[in-house]
Design goal:
By secondary structure, this protein is an all-alpha fold. It contains six helices and no strands.
Length: 174
């Protein structure tokens, strides 16, 4: 996969290929990722290209994560955790949730803290990353992000501590 072009990946996602790469990017998300990050269909889907997905997720698709990491007013750890749980089925939700509480559609059943937001949905997703692990990773990244440097008071969000190879629920676009 890392030798193929982005266009080849996108074409293959119309057939037998679904979630791809170390961030398990699904077809609808891939299209948005390519459009928003200025990626060409001719770019190789290598590690460098895949790593741009972190910036896309944090700053475009799930901005509550980026806001938390930069200490923006109104941001919270819980909002960032829930945003990551919405993006990656393998990330557990930070608190018990009632059916439809997230966006009127998810979860499809009442769930407990640490369950996948998509538990009970087609694909029967299960969380493998606890809310405590995500909270620790987010706090660590926020500390790094807000630490002053000689060149500026803020750093680019690296997100190296957020677990790789996260899975997304099948057949859903967000």
């Amino acid at each position: 996969i890392s030798q193929m072009t982005v266009g080849e990946i996108m074409d293959a996602q119309r057939g037998s290929l679904f979630a791809v790469g170390k961030y398990q990017i699904i077809p609808g998300t891939m299209k948005e990722f390519v459009q928003n990050m200025g990626i060409s269909r001719d770019d190789v889907f290598n590690e460098e290209t895949q790593d741009k997905f972190k910036e896309y997720t944090v700053n475009y698709k799930r901005p509550s994560v980026g806001k938390f990491l930069t200490g923006a007013a109104g941001s919270s750890l819980e909002k960032a955790q829930l945003a990551l749980a919405a993006e990656f089925a393998s990330v557990g939700v930070p608190y018990d949730m009632k059916k439809g509480e997230y966006n009127g559609r998810y979860p499809v059943i009442d769930i407990k803290k640490g369950d996948s937001l998509y538990k009970g949905a087609p694909g029967d997703n299960a969380a493998s990353i606890s809310p405590e692990d995500i909270a620790e990773a987010l706090r660590k990244e926020k500390k790094i992000n807000l630490k002053p440097t000689p060149q500026s008071t803020r750093q680019t969000v690296p997100l190296e501590e957020i677990p790789k190879n996260l899975d997304s629920p099948e057949g859903r676009e967000y």
